[in-house]
Predict the structure.
Amino acid sequence: MDIREYLPIWDKLNEDQQNRIRRAITLHRVKKGTVIHNGNMDCTGLLLIQAGQLRAYLLSEEGREITLYRLFERDLCLLSASCMIRSIQFEVTVAAEKDTEFWLIPTEIYQSVQEESAPAAGYINELMASRFSEVMWLIEQIMWKSLDKRVAAFLLEEAAIEGTAALHITHETIANHLGTHREVITRMLRYFQNEGLVKLARGVVEILDEAGLERLQR
Amino acid sequence: MDIREYLPIWDKLNEDQQNRIRRAITLHRVKKGTVIHNGNMDCTGLLLIQAGQLRAYLLSEEGREITLYRLFERDLCLLSASCMIRSIQFEVTVAAEKDTEFWLIPTEIYQSVQEESAPAAGYINELMASRFSEVMWLIEQIMWKSLDKRVAAFLLEEAAIEGTAALHITHETIANHLGTHREVITRMLRYFQNEGLVKLARGVVEILDEAGLERLQR
């Protein structure tokens, strides 16, 4: 695996810029559940995911959570380097949802490259616009979509990510993704079960009627 | 008034880039209420506000609204040039909240400049990060703050913008800013009135107890 395959703007950097990045990057492996970045920690840097899965979420003062977006192989985690961009005035937490391997590009290195290179700055623009779009989608969901639709959409997304209809996930975890309370999710899932959409067992939500969930989420 | 006083990166552009922008910009005046940009229209361009006030908001299929942020003198409206950034996948509407004067920088001109100039691309980064931050703040408000706090915060913000405690604003307009229904706002304002925080009259919400609203919004 080589960094140049993971950074789409690699060929637009000059040799000196490429060398600075190459010398500075480090490879890291973290276990599922590890918190890699939280708003209060120092600026972690840009994370380029080689394998695994990360989750970026908001954490309220009372400990409530809501998922902003997920990052997969080849994604670059920008907000872990939020100190690079002065105008970012919010705090996200990033944790590993699976065992994850990533390259860490130190903030000051990318910073120095993007000050010289319009393509490197433009790449950060595109990345930020992608994350911004995901967060805007989330606002539309929260504002205009009822929770039954959001739960249906979440279960279908999880099934697609995991490649299975039998999801090993707790009601608490689903609540944390969607920014609500466990009891609310339990009630909704029981309703889904009565409708024949899912089957519930300890720690497992099994999708029985994918087409039904898809109709519901629309 | 000169464009160079409004674009902080002006001095970092070369003469050719400055000339391209200077030749392409046009000055526009719109009346309060004019919709300047909506997601379905062509790419409007970057708007640099000289005087007045713009509002960027989401519009649901059912016609509901929620304010994302406001733009004031010297602000640059980025999302009206969203076609410039491929990864922006959402649609906002931008309308004049007051009579407004702005320069329009055509999208393709700024686009061509930022492809050559790292400072021009970096400036768009900073702007996008600012708007992103405002939207993240909004999510936190929606998720973790009750509506009474949000209404209190909105009234205080309006009073600060308008420089008066007697706000000429309808309950419908407040509802559209906060993404809720008129009836809900009317009920909340009547509660505020009973608490002695505001006084309601036809088309006017007068703040009687600013300190009380501030305590409430915390």
